[in-house]
Specification:
The structure is a single chain. The chain is of the alpha+beta class. 21% of the residues lie in helices and 38% in strands. The protein has one domain (4-85). The chain has a 7-stranded antiparallel β-sheet with strand order 1-2-3-4-5-7-6. It is globular and about 35 Å long.
């Protein structure tokens, strides 16, 4: 995979520990990757995404923090202000 290119309707750029995707409508999704390869994001990236939407959402960091924390156990705060999708265990 090259460090930048096109994937479906998204352009992407690999950076440091992550990747930034920009959709054709301008929506900007940026994430970092944890040591295990899972995706992680912080409130700055989430706010930037909201502002990049066709109808921008401008919310405070506290509102974002409250919203993200309300999604537990789906999301886990892996370090202060950084979140990733929880590993859900299913039994068979």
């Amino acid at each position: 995979m090259s460090r930048s290119g096109q994937a479906s309707t998204y352009s992407y750029t690999v950076h440091g520990a992550g990747c930034r995707f920009v959709c054709g409508n301008g929506a900007d999704v940026d994430m970092d990757f944890a040591a295990d390869g899972s995706e992680a994001f912080d409130l700055w990236r989430l706010r930037r995404y909201g502002l990049s939407l066709p109808e921008p959402l401008d919310v405070t960091d506290e509102d974002l923090r409250t919203a993200v924390r309300s999604l537990q156990p789906l999301l886990t705060e892996v370090r202060p202000g950084w979140f990733q999708r929880s590993q859900l265990i299913t039994s068979g």
